[in-house]
Design brief:
This protein is of the alpha+beta class. The protein folds into two domains: 213 residues, no CATH class; 138 residues, 2-Layer Sandwich (Nucleotidyltransferase, domain 5). It has twelve helices and twelve strands. The strands form two sheets. It has a seven-stranded mixed β-sheet with strand order 5-4-3-2-1-6-7. The protein has a five-stranded mixed β-sheet with strand order 10-9-8-11-12, sandwiched between helices. The chain is elongated, with a radius of gyration of 23 Å.
Length: 402
């Protein structure tokens, strides 16, 4: 029950704080004060990056009015059926995209009435990302605030039902064009696209068409599941019921096994000259704490989807002094950004002027990337669930930026 409440809290947070707005996002001006050192300078620098953004024409194709009409009609039908009254987030099934062949895996939220929504996790990456996220939530009674940003790294589409005040001007404009009227709490359909490393954003035309299929099939599956709960209990071998459109235009059930996504290659560029220079630095007895995380706010560049800004932060484990920080963006994607971490660590050591005895991290991903440097630079990597000094520095940032 606690897990479900937390998931609903996250979904509500994403509606309240992680949606595009008409005016954009502004982070209050922060001035570096004497005595706060790099921490305040870091916040001031970050504030410069978090600028107001305006809605302009996106490069992606927008849905036509007819595509919007069909999507809203499907959403209205879902609301009438209210599948969350008998389905939980783990009653997952698939719908194959007739245009691409990709399967989206549907999870229904709202049994407790806190957040009414359908999420469509895209492909094996989205499906396994969803299960991994649930494990993260279950493993900690009080997940860290940035845990919710892990949800933003799972490729998905969402249809939710919100209060009118939670919709943007663009959402309301489409509803007005369609001549639709909604009244009351949790009555207004809202649709968003989630891409790893990017801010939830408006649907493109192809996404709207697929989400329409998903919502229509969700009604079909939900009504059948209500009568036969065994419908979504296929063999326990990673198989799922998937709805597939046949060539004759009829949807049918198939049981499809979905193996975990294959590991992907992450290119690791390195500045060999900088690496050789860092090898000559003295080795200290210090332990550094290091973390890599998304910051609470989108960055918008003209004509591009807003993205998350990530920070590689290093502090001294004894004093808590911020030693170095770098900002990275998912350009062109998350994996390319991850591949830059080893060279950024080399640059950070160069700025600090010494190599630590040990670097303690929280993330298995960061641990694996740092281990690429241990043989060359002679330090050890330790993983810990709590980074006391770094978490204090992070709390300082979140307090001023979150």
């Amino acid at each position: 029950m606690a897990q479900r409440r937390y998931l609903a809290h996250i979904a509500t947070y994403l509606v309240d704080a992680v949606q595009p707005t008409d005016q954009g996002l502004e982070v209050g001006s922060v001035t570096a004060k004497a005595g706060l050192g790099k921490g305040a300078a870091l916040v001031a620098h970050l504030t410069d990056l978090m600028v107001l953004y305006e809605e302009d024409n996106m490069a992606e194709s927008k849905p036509t009015l007819e595509e919007w009409r069909q999507l809203y009609q499907a959403a209205i039908r879902v609301k009438e059926v209210a599948p969350w009254e008998w389905m939980t987030e783990t009653d997952v099934f698939g719908v194959q995209n007739p245009e691409t062949g990709e399967v989206g895996f549907v999870s229904v939220m709202g049994m407790r009435g806190e957040h009414l929504a359908l999420a469509v996790y895209l492909g094996a990456e989205g499906l396994y990302g969803f299960w991994h996220f649930r494990e993260m939530v279950e493993s900690s009674p009080t997940p860290a605030p940035e845990t919710l940003f892990t949800l933003l790294e799972i490729p998905q589409l969402q249809a939710s039902f919100e209060d009118r005040t939670q919709l943007s001007q663009e959402d309301r404009a489409v509803i007005k064009q369609l001549g639709l009227k909604f009244r009351g709490a949790q009555a207004w359909p809202m649709f968003r696209s989630y891409r790893p490393g990017f801010w939830p954003w408006y649907l493109e035309a192809a996404e709207a068409r697929f989400l329409t299929h998903v919502l229509n099939q969700a009604v079909e599956v939900a009504l059948r599941f209500k009568e036969d709960p065994a419908l979504l209990k296929p063999p326990d071998d990673g198989s799922y019921l998937v709805r597939v459109l046949r060539d004759d235009g009829v949807w049918e059930d198939r049981i499809v096994r979905v193996p975990p996504p294959e590991p992907t290659f992450i290119p690791i560029p390195m500045d060999e000259e900088a690496l050789e220079a860092v090898k000559q630095l003295p080795h200290a007895r210090n332990t550094f704490e290091m973390d890599f995380f998304a910051l609470p706010g989108p960055i918008r560049e003209k004509d591009k989807r807003p993205y998350l800004l990530y920070m590689l932060l290093t502090v001294d484990a004894n004093s808590g002094l911020i030693l170095a920080f770098d900002f990275l963006k998912p350009d062109p994607d998350l994996k390319t950004m991850w591949g830059l971490i080893p060279v950024k660590v080399v640059y950070q050591f160069a700025k600090i002027g010494k190599i630590p005895r040990r670097v303690t991290v929280r993330s298995p991903l960061l641990s694996g990337l740092l281990r690429l440097l241990t043989a060359e630079l002679g330090f050890e990597v330790k993983t810990a669930s709590v980074l006391r000094r770094l978490d204090q520095a992070k709390a300082f940032l979140w307090d001023r930026l979150g």
